[in-house]
């Protein structure tokens, strides 16, 4: 339903074709932002469409408020089509033909890694909203690319720490006795999360019984499922997109693979509506590591006014998609856009003379948002040039969520959890260990 609703005509194009353009704003000066997401192809249903909607709504709301320092935001949306070469070509078109002032968006880390390098080499500015691979920034010393989003090392660490924190009480096992399998799509995103999984699991003394990657486009994962059956992991840590997650869950059910806990890491695991549509109640009790869906947080824990912004984001998303659950990717797209438009861009214009790449860079490096200062809870301050993760937000943090009865609950960290984790799977569940 969502894919059919969000056609190219309805979502992709210049802001002049969108509902928020017009009226008094049409007389304002403008800032052109090229927004790149996957509106078609497998990444679209894995979270890219949800993120694109969140980004679009944030821009709408800012323009409805009068824009940024007297400038209307003219967003030009481009479809990467879930293909790296298309993402790079669209970025080139936006910069050279559309002459945008900066680039924003990007869902897939496989797109983000080469794109960030190319944009930085051209001394153009890029604000990354969703892609998580640590390799986008690690040891690359990027000067004109910034990301407030969580990075993949943090994803991998969070799931392992969660299991270590609950294993004694829930699994009746010490962390050292927990059998862990790490499976992942072998692009920058999956490999990055898996590396974080492995490093943290070894630090915690967990038993890694299998670590194996696969192509996200693989037509058959039965051999991987067979290996997992043989190794009998208590916990499976999985990083994938959407078709491969569906294939894995389907073949696991068919071949009798069972587990105590399955923990996904964003992307397709952040799309509970799609999982429920395909697997029904079998999707219950799956865990997902992601930046938190903003509507799950207690507004009292955030800066005053942010709760109202989250409520409006949720209202607009549901009105546009008719969806019940608002996935974390909506918050990611919205939150990163909101941070840029309300903190970085105004500072660039006021304090650094405009919105050139150098002005935006200086403004981003001056960002200092404390914990509780964004709709997803975490703060924002960027690692400076000369550090291993230059351009990455050092205050970002993910949470562990669990789907229960079609609803999303926060189960870790303990300070903000909204429910106790259900682990191991209850008896009678299709994937419950016998």
Summarize the structure.
The chain has 434 residues and is an alpha/beta fold. The protein has helices at 2-5, 8-11, 42-64, 84-96, 109-121, 152-171, 188-203, 222-231, 243-255, 272-279, 306-321, 328-352, 357-365; strands spanning 29-37, 71-79, 102-105, 126-128, 145-147, 179-185, 207-214, 235-239, 261-264, 287-290, 399-404, 407-412.
* Main sheet strand line-up: 7-6-8-9-10-11-12
Which structural class should the secondary elements be placed in?
alpha/beta
Global mean pLDDT = 92
Distance between the termini: 37 Å
Whole-angstrom Rg:
21 Å
Say how many strands there are: 12
How many separate helices?
Answer: 13
Q: Judging from the principal axes of the Cα atoms, what is the shape?
A: globular
> What percent of residues are in strands?
15-25%
Instruction: Sketch the topology as an H/E string, one letter per element.
Output: HHEHEHEHEEHEHEHEHEHEHHHEE
Structure description:
This protein is an alpha/beta fold. It has 13 helices and 12 strands. The strands form 2 sheets. The protein has a 7-stranded mixed beta sheet, with helices on both faces. Helix 5 links the parallel strand 3 and strand 4. Helix 3 packs across helix 12 and helix 4 runs parallel beside helix 5. The chain is globular and about 65 Å long. The two termini are 37 Å apart. The N terminus is likely disordered.
